[in-house]
Each structure stands twice: as structure tokens, then as C-alpha cells.
Amino acid sequence: MSVPLVQRVVAVLWSSFLVAGVATILVFATFDPHDLTDPLGFSDVSRMTVYSIGFFLIWIVALLSSLLTVYFMRPVGSVNPGK
Amino acid sequence: MSSNPSRAAEGIEQELYAKRQKIYPREVHGLFARLRVTAVVSLLGLYYIVPWFRWDDRQAVLFDLPARKFYIFGLVFWPQDFFYLSGLLIIAALSLFFFTALAGRLWCGYACPQTVWTEAFMWLERIIEGEWSKQMKLDKAPWSGHKVLVKTIKHTVWIVFALWTGFTFVGYFTPILELGAKLLTFSTGPWETFWVFFYGFATYGNAGWLREQVCIYMCPYARFQSAMFDKNTLVISYDENRGEPRGGRKRGSDPKAQGLGDCINCRICVQVCPTGIDIRDGLQYQCIGCAACIDACDDVMDRMGYARGLVLYTTENTLEGRPTRVLRPRVIVYAVILVMLLGAVVYGIATRNPVGLDVIRDRNALFRETNEGFIENIYTLKILNKSDRDYTFGITASGIPGLKLVSDQPTVLVVGGAVANIVVRVQLDFADLKASTNAINFTVQAVDDDRMKAQEPARFLGPRGIER
Fold first, then answer.
1. Under an 8 A CB cutoff, do B68 and A18 touch?
2. Whose CA is closest to B378, among B402, B399, B406?
3. Contact residues, chain A, for B66 at CB < 8 Å
4. How far does A46 lie from chain B, in Å, by closest CA?
5. Suppose B359 and one of B66, B214, B301, B458 were both cysteines; which one would form an S-S bond, judging by CB atoms 3.0 to 4.6 Å apart?
6. DSSP state of B451
7. Which of B306, B315, B279 is nearest to B294 (CA)?
8. How many Å separate Cα B249 from the centre of its chain?
9. What is the mean pLDDT of residues A60-82?
10. What is the CA radius of gyration of chain A?
């Protein structure tokens, strides 16, 4: 692909960061972190910790999606092109 | 941006996306520069001062994420009020559309945090390193004791300013007075520390290093803003009919006699541009609408004794000699929706129910039968008192004749701005049960104020297969 590697890396990191920010707000506006952690047996973690870890988890998920998008953008012809 | 090999000696950096020649915007004075400085000073001033405002005994503006409450002066918002926040976000987006349709990238040129902090960082850079030509010379010069000293001072000042910015940012989410006290004793929490550095680092990187590249490569708005443009949108343009053919000339000589237009090709409009474009090439995606080139060109025109406005705020229609329509369907539609939404949000907040009620069914059992032959369901009620004084609430359940509410406390005291959790049992004689699933309602009502009242539906479950 003609797009430089560094541009692909930044596009993946940055777009997933933006989406993760919005998703984090939506998730934690709907769910109280304590309602999520208490059933799992972590009752002494602060909400700040859950927000922060939640943000990074969502970022990773969004990042995987962006990564797959970039991965599948690769033209089919470049995989085992044959003779 | 093109990469010209002959310029390699001038220090092309391999930047994030493309070979980038570092831009040294020349300082500019004039009407629009004054407007921008006014915007920068007032917006940054507000940003750094607002968290220190007090309201009663608390921080006036505090998005208290740990406690899940937003304080904005006299108002307290709860997660249940998320509706208003989304309303505000939609209003913000629509205002952006409205102003873009009207006058182009006003947001980018005067109000965007990227512009505002970049402006502040460039101001610090100018104080420490001198004007643009000095900055260029210093960067080209070989490393020396002087260069190390100047660069160290600049980056230290930038980092301190960026960390203060990060501290202020976190101060919007956790009480800033306590945060400051903790900072002085180096005892801030791990996440507080992390976010201070994270936001500080982002400020330093974006405003110190990336600058116009953020607008060109990272900004989502910059990618779609042109969709809001039409031929009646005010944009910064070069009056080609008047300026061309461009060319140097002696001051006081008659350009017409030399076959020249009004553009003296001094390139100052290019030198002042923070994104390094030439406005004379027409409207470009990189143009953030800062109007620095207008100020610069007006100044040159004054000195040449020509009329101002060779580079100006104008519309495509005007440049083509057609009339400009300010009030056009697009602008009117944006304005009407904007006013309606704004009215709805203000009305909603003004008439907001000060009591909130959440009903959560007991997770362990759907229902149970008591020794007296009653079917019993258990619920946890969360009663939210959004007002600032304490109230005592009575609770009732209704919806099926014969429904009985049993609770350890007949009434519940809820402190102002707090939530009370109370477990209640609702009982119904088996003979009165009409179906397996029944809709019921919980009502909480303050004992001494009729307006403090909320109702919430719930389900009352019995054994399967009942249909009477």
C-alpha cells in the first residue's frame, strides 16, 4: 500500500482514541462503575480507576477494529499474487 | 506539502505524515490579530480561572466524576440528566455548522483549543527565541552553549505551562483546592497524576510540536467543514482580478504603466501563515481562517498607498460580481433548529423534576410466598434528591387493587444532593393476583412539599400460568 507505515499507525491510534473517548462517556453515563465492579468482587476500587481502565479497554477494542480495517484495506492482489 | 530536495539543507523534518518543513509564522499586527489575541486571552483566562470559582461551600464548576455529579454554579446534574448533556452537544455541533455556513472556519481561527494553545506557545517562543527570522537562524545554527541554553529555557517554560494546563484540566474533575494541596505534598492519586501528565503532554506535543499538523491531519472537523460552505459563505480570499499580474515594483511607481496588478509579491501573506500556504492559490483545505494574511496584506497596502482588501473576508459570489445572500435556506434552517433546541434544553432544565427514582428488582428471587399466603416481590429503590435541601419522602406502590408495601422505615430522609437506597417488599394476596406479570408503579412523595414527587413503573411477578 502506498500509504506510509507511520501514517497507518497514527490513523489507527488516533481514530480509535477519538471513538474511545465518546464511547467511554456513553458507557459511564449509563453505568455506575460500582455496579460493574461489585458483581465481579472488586468492591474497593475507586470510580476514577474504573473510568480510566475502562477508557483504555475501550481504546484497545476500537484499536483492534481500526487495525482490522487497515489490514483488510490491503489489495487482494498483493496476497499470493502468483506468477 | 511538497518536499523539495534543494531545501533539505534548511532542515526538512520527517514528521508524522509527510516530509514537513517547519513553519515559522511571522508575527502579525492588525484588526484580526487583535481579535484573536482577545479570544485567546479570554478563553485561556476562563479555562485557568473557572475551576477556582466558589459557589456556597463548593467548587462552582466541577464535573465530579468520582461522585457522578456535575456542578455548574447553582445547578447539579446527575447521570439521569445525561439527556441535557447530549442536548448541549447537539447544540454545540449545530452552532459549528451555523457559523461555518455563515463565515467559514471562525471556530478554527479564533476559538479552537489547538489554535488558542498554539498561539500561547508561539507567544512564549517569541519571547524566548525572538522573532521568526531569529528562530530560523537559531535552528539552522550549529549546536552551541547559547543554543542549548535558549532551547532548554524554551522547553522548560513550555513544559511548566503544559503541566499547569494538565493540572487545571484535572481540576475540573476533582476538587482543585484538594488537588493543589495534594500536589504540594506530592500525594496526588495515581490516576490524577497520570491525567495531569497525559493532558500536559498532549498540550506540549500539540501546541509546541505538531501545531498546524493537528489541523491538517488529525482534525475531524477540518475534513468535513467544506461541506457547509456555499457561494455565500464568508471566506478569506485573494482578489485575483485586482492583484494579478503580481510583481515587484518601485514605491510610488504606477503599476498600470508596468502592466502590473496590486500584488507586489512580497510574500508576507505566506510568511505569516501558520499553516504555510499561499492564499493567492485560492481557498485551500489547510486554511484555518485565522486572517493573519489579511492583516499582513492590509499593512503592506497601507505602506504602498493602495486600498486595503487585496486579501479579504468575502464570498465567492462577491468575487464573481454577484450579490451575496446572507439569509439563505441553509442558514435559516440551522438557526431555527438551533433556537428550538436551545429553548427545549433551557425549558427542560428550568422545569426539571428535582426528585429522581430508580427501581431495581431483587436479583436473587423473582417472587416468594409468605406464610400468610401473600406473593411477595422485593425491590431496591434509589431516591435521588436533586435539590439543595433535605426532604423526607413517603413511598407508595399502586397498580393492582390490594397491593401492600412493607418497609422497615415508613419514611426516608434524603439529604440535599444525595441518593438514598431503600429495600421495600411489595405483597399481594394470591387471590388478588390477576396475571403472572403485572405492571405496578412506585411513587415517592416528600411529606412537606407536593412538588417533590416522582413515579417509576416496575413489574410485579407471580407464579407462571396465572390468567384470571
1. no
2. B406
3. 46-48
4. 7
5. B458
6. T
7. B279
8. 47
9. 85
10. 18
B105 SS3 class? coil
Comparing B190 with A77, which gets the higher pLDDT? B190
Is A48's CB within 8 Å of B65's CB? yes
- Using a CB–CB cutoff of 8 Å, tell me whether B63 touches chain A: no
Return d(Cα B188, Cα B141) in angstroms, integer: 42
If you count DSSP H runs as helices and E runs as strands, how many of each does chain A have, helices first? 3, 0
**Side chain identity at residue B353, one-letter code:** N
Contacts of B41 (CB under 8 A, 6+ apart): none
Q: Please say whether the beta carbons of B447 and B400 come within 8 A.
A: no
| Interface residue A5 vs chain B (CB under 8 A) | no
SS3 B69: strand
Strand, coil or helix: B260: coil
Q: Which of A47, A53, A55 should be substituted to probe chain B, the one whose Cβ sees the most B Cβ atoms within 10 Å?
A: A47
Domain ranges of chain A: 5-75
**Nearest Cβ partner of B68 from A10, A14, A32?**
A32
**Using CB atoms within 10 A of its CB, is residue B135 exposed (0-12), middle (13-18) or buried (19+)?**
buried
Residue A7 and residue B79: Cβ atoms within 8 Å?
Answer: no
ipTM of the prediction greater than 0.90, yes or no:
no
- pLDDT for B215-257, tens place per residue? 988 888 998 888 888 899 999 999 999 998 899 888 888 888 8
Whether omega before B245 lies within 30 degrees of 0, making that bond cis, reads yes
Cell numbers of B193, please? 497524576
A29 at interface of B, judged by CB pairs closer than 8 A:
yes
Coil, strand or helix: which one is A26? Answer: helix
A83 pLDDT tier (thresholds 50, 70, 90): low
Low-confidence ranges of chain B (pLDDT < 70): 1-20
What integer pLDDT is reported at residue B6 of this predicted model? 39
Question: In whole angstroms, what is the distance from residue B137 CA to residue B173 CA?
Answer: 43
